[in-house]
Amino acid sequence: MNQPLPGAAVRPFSSFDLPRPVLSALASRQLDTPTPIQDAVIPDALAGHDVLGKARTGSGKTLAFGLPVLVRLSGGQRRRKAPRGLILLPTRELATQVRDALVPFADRLNLSMALVYGGTPINRQISAVTAGVDLVIATPGRLGDLLERRALTLDAIEVIALDEADHLCDLGFYKPIDAILAKTPQGAQKLLLSATLDGDVDRLVRRHLPVHRRHEVDSAEDAPADMTHHLVVTRREDRVRVARDLIAGEDRSIVFTRTKHGARRLAKQLSTAGLTAVDLHGDLNQNQRERNLARFRNGTADVIVATDVAARGIHVDGIGLVVHYDPPAEHKAFTHRSGRTARAGESGIVVTLATPEDLRDVVAMQNKAGVSARRHEVEGRTLTLAGLATGGTLTKLAPAAGGAQRSNGGQRR
């Protein structure tokens, strides 16, 4: 059964104006109760409104925008080179995961989909969209390539969805997305989902969704009650040992590094120390990335070491531990990284490693994120996950101005 997140409405999916095939597909997957963002977005999207949704990673955004997109396209006529639906995403991994999540519903509605992203041969993608598909799921860069080659047109677009719009803009895609939206018909329905709504995301909203229904549900500033934060102060030369000791107590963990070289090196060091670790970063080709992600998902690897950009494609439930091996400089990155755990009502632990020299900056960054962390000094001793729960000193940090993530630094439940 789908477990609603805290605050979820009690009304079932069957109360929405969804076609019987979609309800049947939901029931076959034991999805009967929507998450808060699904409950908020789906009715307005089904009614044809432009919708702006603010929600954190792991809150159920894919079906929140995906089901209305598919319903909007059902029963329409398929045309060559002219898809009627478009979903834009920041990474190829996320594009693939969204496609996989929507396949059961698209099949019930007799809708065809095509994946369009870089890192793979373009000719096969050109053939797919030229033959005619109902929905294109794309990253902006490769979609732009296909538009330049006139492999498809956006003249027939009826509905367009942008997921993780803040990350799309962080990657420098504001101008391409602005141009893509400008190429769609004026009356096309637009759905935009994001963890934050400032900066370039706000510019996109003002330019392309001037009249919309807005929902802020389970957002990045509302951290899961079962996410616990720990700040571990350690010498730089001890970080690998400390990370290994913590990761050894969890079945599935993600470790973040600042650089591609750092991810590659740390994965090797953890593997040498007896863990099964894989890396994920921009230097890997598509086959390598997919192989490493598959090993992590199926449990043959128990830890993945990733950079920020690469990790935005990781959407895996059941991750119990996030380790900030290299703490980010920016609090939004900290929030996004931490959001890999404590998803969909589950509990999770977030550990930030800091050297004494970096401690002041790390504390300031966590303060901006509104985090209360339990602080541990580990010089000369072993620290395990069990030790995290029973030791350390809880430091209350003032929330950042304007509201920020608030997270529990107490024991994991």
UniProtKB/TrEMBL annotation:
<dbReference type="Pfam" id="PF00271">
    <property type="entry name" value="Helicase_C"/>
</dbReference>
<dbReference type="InterPro" id="IPR050079">
    <property type="entry name" value="DEAD_box_RNA_helicase"/>
</dbReference>
<keyword id="KW-0378">Hydrolase</keyword>
<feature type="domain" description="Helicase C-terminal">
    <location>
        <begin position="226"/>
        <end position="389"/>
    </location>
</feature>
<comment type="similarity">
    <text>Belongs to the DEAD box helicase family.</text>
</comment>
<dbReference type="GO" id="GO:0005524">
    <property type="term" value="F:ATP binding"/>
</dbReference>
<feature type="short sequence motif" description="Q motif">
    <location>
        <begin position="11"/>
        <end position="39"/>
    </location>
</feature>
<protein>
    <submittedName>
        <fullName>DEAD/DEAH box helicase</fullName>
    </submittedName>
</protein>
<keyword id="KW-0347">Helicase</keyword>
<feature type="domain" description="DEAD-box RNA helicase Q">
    <location>
        <begin position="11"/>
        <end position="39"/>
    </location>
</feature>
<dbReference type="GO" id="GO:0005829">
    <property type="term" value="C:cytosol"/>
</dbReference>
<dbReference type="Pfam" id="PF00270">
    <property type="entry name" value="DEAD"/>
</dbReference>
<dbReference type="InterPro" id="IPR044742">
    <property type="entry name" value="DEAD/DEAH_RhlB"/>
</dbReference>
<dbReference type="GO" id="GO:0016787">
    <property type="term" value="F:hydrolase activity"/>
</dbReference>
<keyword id="KW-0547">Nucleotide-binding</keyword>
<feature type="domain" description="Helicase ATP-binding">
    <location>
        <begin position="42"/>
        <end position="215"/>
    </location>
</feature>
<dbReference type="InterPro" id="IPR014001">
    <property type="entry name" value="Helicase_ATP-bd"/>
</dbReference>
<dbReference type="InterPro" id="IPR001650">
    <property type="entry name" value="Helicase_C-like"/>
</dbReference>
<dbReference type="GO" id="GO:0003724">
    <property type="term" value="F:RNA helicase activity"/>
</dbReference>
<dbReference type="InterPro" id="IPR011545">
    <property type="entry name" value="DEAD/DEAH_box_helicase_dom"/>
</dbReference>
<dbReference type="InterPro" id="IPR027417">
    <property type="entry name" value="P-loop_NTPase"/>
</dbReference>
<dbReference type="GO" id="GO:0003676">
    <property type="term" value="F:nucleic acid binding"/>
</dbReference>
<keyword id="KW-0067">ATP-binding</keyword>
<dbReference type="InterPro" id="IPR014014">
    <property type="entry name" value="RNA_helicase_DEAD_Q_motif"/>
</dbReference>
